[in-house]
Amino acid sequence: MSELWEVLREHFPELSSGFLVTARLVAVAFVIAMVVGTLVAALRVAPVRWLRLVGGIYVETFRNIPLLVLLFISFAGLRRAGLPIGAWVAGTASLGLYTAAYIAEALRSGVFAVSKGQIEASLSLGFTYPATLRRIVIPQAFRTVIPALGSLVIAMIKNSAIVGVSLLALPDLLKEARIAQSRTFQTDEVFFWAAVGYLLLTVTATLAFRYLERRFEIKR
Q1: Is 1.10.3720.10 the CATH classification of the domain at 2-215?
Q2: Which residue ranges in the chain fall short of pLDDT 50?
Q3: pTM, full prediction
């Protein structure tokens, strides 16, 4: 037990720095995922067939390509093609776009939970279909799929570890833990504290989404 606390005391600056990098990475990627996922979900339920096709292609592409492969494409591939993309941009964009495909499907299921009567009433009142989605359907869909979104955010936090150990080598929590382990060879102690760091992030996300779930619960 003393060795456990000693490792934390000696490597706290590195581990805390990696923790903050991971938190920033997840926060930026979450914003990207929500914005893109909402737009793709709107395409998936659009009345125009080719728009639904575009949304479907996006979802199937990003949902079926491993995140690690996306990281290689977005960083090494684009740089080789002449686009000087940085590691931070490649990491946040890849994680965000990857998660957006799952968020889009979650929101699409929430849209189908909204009764057609509300949509028809909105259209009969003169609202356009995009306005109906924006003002009536999407807000209700978000309330319906809050638990699913919480699970996706937790999965995204865990997937963020792939970014740090990939060729991008961002100094996130897992990367800093690996560096500390290579210096001390105290594998169990170092990765225990790395696990605690990820647990803090996932528990915080869980509590936040449980609050949102209670706050916006649909009374039946």
Answers
A1: yes
A2: none
A3: 0.85
CB 94 within 8 A of CB 71: yes
Which residues lie closer than 8 Å to 206 by C-beta, 6 or more apart?
150, 154
Domain parsing of the chain, residue ranges: 2-215
- Write the single-letter amino acid at 123: L
Structural contact between residues 136 and 122, judged by C-beta atoms closer than 8 angstroms: yes
The C-alpha atoms of residue 55 and residue 66 are separated, in whole angstroms, by 19
HEC secondary structure over the chain: CHHHHHHHHHHHHHHHHHHHHHHHHHHHHHHHHHHHHHHHHHHHCCCCHHHHHHHHHHHHHHHHCCHHHHHHHHHHHHHHCCCCCCHHHHHHHHHHHHHHHHHHHHHHHHHHHCCHHHHHHHHHCCCCHHHHHHHHHHHHHHHHCHHHHHHHHHHHHHHHHHHHHCCCCCCCHHHHHHHHHHHHCCHHHHHHHHHHHHHHHHHHHHHHHHHHHHHCCCCC
pLDDT digits (tens, 9 = 90+) for 116-142: 666 667 767 767 767 777 777 777 777
Nearest to 168 by CA among 71, 56, 46: 71
Distance CA 122, CA 139 (A): 14
Q: Mean pLDDT for the chain?
A: 84
